[in-house]
Design brief:
By secondary structure, the protein is α+β, with helices and mostly antiparallel strands. 25% of the residues lie in helices and 30% in strands. The strands form four sheets. Strands 10, 11, 12, 13, 14, 15, 16, 18 and 20 form a nine-stranded antiparallel beta sheet that branches. Strands 3-2-1-4-5 form a five-stranded parallel beta sheet, sandwiched between helices. Helix 1 packs across helix 8. The longest helix has 18 residues. The termini are far apart.
Length: 388
Amino acid sequence: MAVRPVIALLGGGQLGRMFIENALRYDVQVHVLDPDPDCPCARIATHFTQGRFDDRDTVLRFAQDADVVGIEIEHVSTEALEQLQGLGKAVIPDPGTLRTIQDKGLQKQFYLDHGIPTEAFTLLDDGRDLVRYPALLPGFLKSCTGGYDGKGVMPVLGPEDAKRAFIGPCVLEKRSDIALELAVLVVRSANGEQAVYDPVEMVFDPRYNLVDHLRAPARMAHTVNEGAKQLALRVAEAFGTPGLYAVELFLTTDGRLLVNETAPRAHNSGHHTIEACASSQFDQLLRLYTGLPLGDTALRGHAAMINLVGEGGSGPADLMGLEEALRIPGTFLHLYGKKETRTGRKMGHITVMAADDTALDRAIALVKAHVHVRPRRAQVITSTNKPH
């Protein structure tokens, strides 16, 4: 490892913040580029630059002195990453891999071309063309580009939904009969070494199309667990480039495992690994960037991660119910340092460790019952608190 290598990170959100929190244990510098001067990474990065990570020239200037270039969001300039790679810098994920994953149409075609099981789909020049494919309805319509955190995906029941469909290139995918939604993290090093985490079970909040909470290990048979890990490894092997791959899967009611999509970066489905594994997803990224051996992925026990999502409008954030949650044994709080909350915005998460599924169920229920992030209300002036 070079003396104090410089890691240039495109994106300064909560994923970057948790990466830096882990990186502080190592002798590295983390430089961050983000358009928001108040982003979660702004005050803890070694060096922060305000600017657009999807602008080629801005990215080139920002990363010109870096040893390694990484991302915490997909919507970055791949053109800049290709040029930086041409200058001899390590770029993770590989720009070619990122180009494929940035476009959901290319990504689905990639699975088809590599024999990776995925749900039946077709590619549309415009979302309104879904009327031509009644056999894929009911289904889901996904914008090929630009989607993030549940945005850019909509359920479609029949041809009548064409009038509200996304305009522009889309994927129309048949709706699966899903028993469980799963995610598996795979780490692939430059020399082809791979490590895989146990699958997690994801439970979604239908209001925001976001993960409400996840649990590990997933509640399923050992054979299915191993099958999910092997399928995720196949996805990483197909891409064939170094990186951290978060592979989202469907376990269908008839027992099939299908790949939904892949993220080439740290992922919400891996936050529990900070406390639940010896080497977290963020530690694995640091090891990838600096050429260190991959870490231990084994679970230390039963774990759950509950997202803290804004509700009730926008404004300065007010966290309620924290005292009750922190009385639960094995509870770990992560706040992302976002000043403003808004409905559906991820503001933090709580991880709980437990001895068994029953204790885990109890802890999840308690956190969800007590902890809420809402906009702070202005103080109501009454006759007893009126200023003098």
